[in-house]
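@channel sequence for tomorrow's demo:
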Amino acid sequence: MAYYDLSANERKKLYAQMQKDIGRDLCSGNNSHVRKYASDTDTYIRRNCYLILGRLYKADEKARENILSLLDLLSLSDDEKIRQTAVYALGEIGKQDFDAIGKRLEVFLNETHHSIKNGLCGALKQMGEKNPKPVFRWVKTKIKKCNADNLKYILHGLELRGRTHPEDLLPIITNILRENIDKKTRKMLIHIIGQISYKKGCLEKVTAELNTWEDKAFIAECGKEIIDVHKRYERFSALSVNEADEYMAENLW
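structure tokens (generated this afternoon):
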């Protein structure tokens, strides 16, 4: 039976049991319970597993080394579900203690399985929003070490922070544009530029950065995407479509 097929009381009992089992594994050096939960076919069981590991790391300083050692093992598992759980757990820890997990994330830079790449993206979203400075420093040093496909996932992971603080993400995009990029990466960058342009004060920052770039065709594509995003998200945008269009006409074109 799936986690959300259970009653609220049954889910509460199962979560408590998972906490006990994971705590026992950490104390005993055994990891059978963690592996069972981390490999479960139910997304929500796996989610509980990495959330519990993150909360135990925060609450129990003595357990931290055991948790990190356990995640080192899980990160190398042949089971993609276990590896995905591991990267999400690292993301939970990285929201508070990025120094402890930065090097450990390198294992996933050239990951080939889509679910783990999505996990890395999700972990970066969470960490980038809660603990942005070390996350963005890490990305700046790692973007040349990953393949082009994974670069898209990493950039997408930073987008959430970029939506409110585009100045954090724009320098990274600028550096990437100095390299030869493929069509898919180019498309992702255009998408991100649109996504970080529509909240209050963001279009001004994005436009100022666009004015420093030399690729006029790329800038024009970004401009179209910005207008399209303002149309799609008009209810949530700081400026109307017309206001955004007029601003760019005066300050970009």
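heads up for whoever presents: The chain has a mean pLDDT of 94.
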